[in-house]
Amino acid sequence: MVKWVIEVEGLVKKFNGRSVLHDVTFHVRRGAVFGLLGPNGAGKTTTIRILLGLLAPTSGKALVLGGRPSENRELRNRVGVVLESDGLFSKLTAFENLDFYARVYGLKSRVEREKKIKELLELVGLYEVRGLKVGYFSKGMRRRLALARAIIRNPEVLFLDEPTSGLDVEARVIVRDLVTKLSRREGVTILYASHDLEEVEKVCSKVALLVKGRVIACDAIENLLIKSSEQLVEVYFVNGSDALRAIERLKELDYVLECKRNDERVAVLVSGDPSRLLSDLVGMGFKVVEARRIRKSLEKMYLELVRGMGE
Amino acid sequence: MIGVIVWKELKETIRDKSILSSGFSVLSFLTLLNVTILKHNIVFNVESLVFYIAPCLGVLAGFGLSSRLVREKREGVVETLLCTPITLRELWLGKVIGLTLPSYLIALMSMMLFICLREYRLNEVMIAYLAIAIPVIIASAIGILGLLQYALGMRQIQILNYIVFFTLFTILYLVVRRLTVPGNSIMSWWSLGVVLTISLTILSVAFYLVAHLGRERIVTTII
Questions:
Q1: Would you say domain A229-295 falls under CATH 3.30.70.920?
Q2: Which residue ranges make up each domain of chain B?
Q3: Which end of chain B is more exposed for a tag (fewer CB within 10 A), N or C?
């Protein structure tokens, strides 16, 4: 059993001498939904293309299920992809598209193929339009069909490059539910590249943040939010006057960046470890009724990190 | 695997309007040719005419259909296909066969119609030429064209298309001009052998080269 399903170590890619990936390293374990986050041009698609064997790395390691898909047909049979383009044939119907890919992936039995295609079309909500040429499909419908195509052979690893781009809310929910189901119930390992932070936060367990071809953060989302340099803490005092007095004292502390009061509640933005705030307040003689750390959104953390890189 | 691709190509061809325009162009050309021959009472050699025109018409039809390869490359379909168990050589071969069959059918049907109108009786060389050499010529042309379309960038492909189009029409023009010059038939077992050898060589070279074409080359020449 391979420990890491996706292994990227010291990956470097240069186009005509210009580096687009610098020493990229991350690992994805079996059954995880791993988010590859980053602004446009960060190198997400290039990383996926290298992993799929569509591009050759300049140096470093990029393995899927312990091998390189470009060199191994059997390996490609175990991998599903939804790239930026849908990879669908406009002149063929939804059913015919899936039938073609099912045959390509080695589903020989016609009965088995038809059963699988029906099941997938129902899953992505396209069964009613199975006989319609894909050329008439909206972008959202094409994206959902592409997702059905990617999982036609029950892949062990799924690469999704901006899977929800251009989708309406309903389609986004379908994709999100499907990704969650594939990961939790079927144990599929998913690499999810996106700049849709809300989607990533809902779907992924771990993320790598790519900026200008470099991984600037790689961890579980919860850990990243905790590790983030700025933390927001809400402190409840016994009464409003205590809160007012506390603000004056808090401003003297070098790690306190900002304070805002609302009656007996004070929101404090601190730099670094927030646990010292409570001990300092108690040391100052304040009676604290409740103190809790406010969970920052991934978006806030993302902007913090990306701006820190001068993006 | 190749059969799956061929089947898909044929399905797409049936639904592709460019096959109608290819058929219409071929039919218009032959009608014009017939009218000119009858009007000016031109004496010509049917075999020589078929020798030159049949492959030109087939390649022209195949050239029209091969635009699908460029479209699939531009739309990123090839990229997705390369992530499946299909190898690039299988993909190329499936497309060559899938595009050759309808192109050959167009060329054969139009030539048979032309031959019937001229009340010409087919001999063995002519049958061998139409049945064996023509599909191989078309396949080699589509094969090399497909290889170049995979390897070249979009702008280069545009230039290539102009060159192919111009060359085909120049050949057709020169052939039609030769009609006024009476002479012996060029059709013989020897000429058939030469044409077949050249075509098979081109096809083999393309078959060899396509396996050595890097995926990166295809992916990075999409834009």
A1: yes
A2: 2-220
A3: C
**pLDDT per position as a tens digit, B151-196:** 988 888 889 888 988 888 888 778 777 665 666 677 788 989 999 9
Residues B115 and B120: their CA atoms lie apart, in Å, by 6
The rounded distance, in Å, linking the Cα atoms of B204 and B200 is 6
A-interface mutation test, from B84, B89, B95, B150, most A Cβ less than 10 A away: B84
pLDDT (0 to 100) of residue A100:
95
- The predicted-structure confidence for A66-90, as pLDDT tens digits, reads as follows 888 888 888 899 999 999 888 899 9
Residue in the block written with tokens 């089947």: B7
Of A53, A70, A89, the CB nearest to B77: A89
User: Domain limits of chain A?
Assistant: 4-221, 229-295
Min Cα–Cα distance to chain B from A103, Å: 7
Residue A228 pLDDT: 65
Strands A265-271 and A79-82: unpaired
Which of B1, B12, B215 is the closest to A91 by Cβ? B12
Q: Which residue has the tokens 């849709």?
A: A196
d(CA A94, CA A153): 16
* A54 close contact with B: CB closer than 8 A: yes
ipTM exceeding the 0.90 mark: no
- What pTM value is reported for the model? 0.83
* DSSP class of A134: G
Please state the length of chain A.
Answer: 311
Angle between helices B67-74 and B46-65 (to 10 degrees): 10
Give the homologous superfamily in CATH for domain A4-221.
Answer: P-loop containing nucleotide triphosphate hydrolases (3.40.50.300)
Please say whether the beta carbons of A155 and A188 come within 8 A: yes
DSSP one-letter code for A309: T
Q: Tell me which chain A residues have a C-beta less than 8 angstroms from the C-beta of B216.
A: 54-56
Please determine, for residue A308, whether its predicted confidence score (pLDDT) is greater than 90.
Answer: no
Q: What is the DSSP string of A85-101?
A: S----TTSBHHHHHHHH
SS3 A4: strand
In B, residues 123-162, which contact A (CB 8 Å cutoff)? none
Q: What percent of chain B has pLDDT over 70?
A: 96
Which of A308, A272, A310 shows the shortest CA–CA distance to A293? A272
